[in-house]
Amino acid sequence: MTAASIPASIQQMMQPGFYPHPVQEPIQLIQTHISYVLLTGEYAYKVKKPMNFGFLNYSTLEARKHFCQEELRLNQRGAAELYLEVLPITKTEQQYQLGGTGEPVEYVLKMRQFPQDMLLINMFSQGKVDEKLMTNLGRVVAEYHKKAAINDYIRNFGEVAQVRQAFDENYEQSEKYIGKAQTQNQFDETKAYTDKFFAEKESLFKSRMAGDFIRECHGDLYMQNICLWHDKILLFDCIEFNEPFRFVDVMYDVAFAVMDFEARGRKDLGNIFLNTYLEQTGDWEGLQVYPLYLSRQAYVRAKVNSFLLDDPGVPAAVKEESAKTAANYYRQAWEYTKPRQGKLILMSGLSGAGKSTVAKQLARQMGAIHVRSDAVRKHLAGIPLEQRGGDEIYTTEWHQKTYQRLLDLGLLLASEGFTVILDAKYDRTALRQEAIAQAESRQIPLQILHCTAPVEVLRQRLQQRTGDIADATVDLLESQQATAEPFADTEKPYVTTIDTTQPVETQLKS
Which residues fall in a coiled-coil region (predicted)? Predict the structure, then answer.
């Protein structure tokens, strides 16, 4: 962007003398399609552009003041450490002042600046986003949603008419980019998918409302808006300008984060985050609306990048890059609408046999949903995952309830096109045969992975187990061995045996 096309107020904000505190020179200006952000060292200052996109209207000074205050208020939920205050910018003659006594001509949000290399997108590009960080992010987002506001007003935004409004708006606003960043076929098929989804699944949206899954969410949860500061994950820059983008299904947020990792070629990281979130919340049924939101979020990123093509202040080279980025997102949005073949994988084996380790590894490779019996049991009992379950949730009745819930979830999600790994002992013939019969009747492919290891290895693993939600202890091994039932001849064609003391990959290929 040329200096001439930057407003005079922003040009002055790029001068060190504008601030009542020391700055780190040169002051860095970051520009998005809706704001200017100035990095001064200890503090960052955000000014909203006087734009009106329909879904966002900052066209008046009063609106910009209001939305600065809303941004400050709403971001206390996920990043209170970063958001400090809203200040006026005043003008005397040709000089702009921060917090002066004259008539305000603009408003600015003052934030604490964090090191840019701690922004998740920058950590990602440096190869510093790992399994531990993704697991923690899943927990943080689950907790954020657990505390998110919910009331009748918010809940009503889950109605089909409300939800589809933003989708229809996306198509209207992006139609002019057909031939520039997306094809006519992609546009038509993506829109047909969402139209059909809304037409056929009204009861699903009602169940999400009834289950209190429409909450005051973040609304823009992708790597650009997540940082690690003082070893704490912060979710910042939530949507303040549009209630329908914030009063949404929790899966809207989850899909945004996963879509972002997948857009950057790391489906495995998205899978770790997704499975952690689902295990923490127990909201596996939410996956029924998840593909809709995956497509929507990719489409939004495509649209936002397309908008830059119309901005006269954006250089040609940046526009060219934006067109490529938009095209990739449009393609991704379209690919999410394609039907997929679901599959069921049953883990089997004694406690300590390595079932969960293998299942996690497989889930990452296959993009599978990993459902652990330990989590299902505790969600059914209404107790925290980290809390040890008492004997009362390990009765025969509770085993039946847990395995029934596991199978119900597996069949539901596999019929929706997901590969689902049901991670439990599956040590009884009746449990396995019920799963086989149900899968066959629905024409869902099924596989059983039987994990084994020498007893001394099982003992050692159980003795060393820490920080896991599983309650099994070493003293249960003997009874498990005594009651485990061998595979019947009718089951054997489904079974692959894995020695978990050896590399797993080669055994799965054989």
Answer: none
End-to-end CA distance of the chain: 57
- CATH for 189: 3.90.1200
Q: Quote the crossing angle between the two packed helices 316-335 and 184-200, to the nearest 10°.
A: 40
Whether residue 136 sits in one domain with residue 107: no
Range of the domain at 94: 3-113
Among candidate residues 57, 91, 113, the one where a domain is terminated: 113
Q: Domain of 414: which CATH number?
A: 3.40.50.300
Residue 389: strand, helix, or coil = coil
Yes or no: say if 497 and 452 are a contact pair by the CB < 8 Å rule: yes
For the question of whether the overall pTM of this predicted structure is more than 0.85, the answer is yes
Tokens of 315: 């250089």
The encoded tokens of residue 217 equal 């969410």
| Contacts by 334-341, CB closer than 8 A, 24 or more apart | 334/182, 334/186, 334/189, 334/190, 334/295, 336/259, 336/291, 336/294, 336/295, 336/298, 337/189, 337/190, 337/193, 337/194, 337/291, 337/295, 339/417, 340/417, 340/418, 341/417, 341/445
What are 129-188's pLDDT values in tens digits? 999 999 999 999 999 999 999 999 999 999 999 999 999 999 999 999 999 999 999 999
Q: Are 128 and 107 in contact (CB under 8 A)?
A: no
Question: Quick one: 375 and 454 in the same domain?
Answer: yes
Place of tokens 């989804």: 197
Distance in angstroms (rounded) separating the CA atoms of residues 298 and 318: 20
257 and 125 both lie in a single domain: yes
